[in-house]
Design goal:
The protein is mainly beta. The chain is built from two helices and 18 strands. It is globular, with a radius of gyration of 18 Å.
Length: 215
């Protein structure tokens, strides 16, 4: 029989114990690899420096990837492949152990807390273009949907609908995750400002404040 914790306890767990961490292997970034494949392996960099056809992607862990004309020429500061992992889980700080974790087979790029059929879930999106709902009580994937492009942001609405940001557009999905409509945007980052407002940072570093409507 599946053991489930009381519904109210998840408020505390979601606030204190939930965090998303690396828990599966990632491939090496090698010379000749295209930029899009680097992003699939490592995610978006903390900063990008450009000069002519040369770009340097800098990551918070100290890694730096140099690309010339869109192809990797040098990768420094990367940990051994056995140390780089992708996944998510709920960690108990009192027990100092995982309540559950998902290992391998995932492309984790962004995460948010939400509900699916009144059950608290972790909403995760990856560079593989998938959005998934993971039951907070046991780590089971309860829904998965492909949105076509790498996911860089997820905003759940009180109605159960989702706003999903990819690198090229912002998609609005209903409670069943069926597509409603799309806004074409070159998106770099998204930030949920309030229950019905989303701040979008474009590739050209301009900002746009969107008011979300549930009707």
């Amino acid at each position: 029989m599946k053991k489930r914790l009381p519904h109210r306890s998840w408020t505390l767990i979601a606030t204190i114990f939930l965090f998303f961490a690396v828990v599966g292997k990632a491939e090496l970034v090698a010379p000749g690899m295209a930029r899009i494949h680097v992003l699939q392996e490592l995610g978006e960099p903390a900063s990008t420096m450009s000069r002519g056809g040369i770009k340097v992607l800098a990551y918070r862990n100290g890694a730096k990837i140099t690309l010339v004309d869109g192809l990797v020429t040098e990768a420094v500061g990367l940990p051994p492949s056995s140390d780089r992992e992708l996944g998510c889980g709920v960690l108990s700080t009192t027990k100092k152990d995982w309540h559950w974790k998902l290992e391998g087979g995932m492309s984790l790029n962004t995460a948010a807390l939400g509900k699916l059929k009144d059950q608290p879930v972790a909403l995760i999106g990856g560079m593989d273009g998938f959005v998934a709902a993971v039951d907070l009580s046991d780590g089971q994937v309860t829904r998965r949907q492909h949105v076509g492009s790498p996911v860089i942001g997820i905003t759940p609405l009180e109605s159960g609908a989702l706003v999903v940001a990819t690198q090229t557009e912002i998609q609005f999905l209903n409670q069943n995750w069926e597509h409603l409509h799309t806004l074409s945007r070159q998106v770099k980052r998204v930030l949920t400002v309030s229950a019905n407002r989303l701040l979008v940072c474009h590739e050209d570093m301009t900002l746009e404040l969107l008011e979300l409507r549930t009707d």
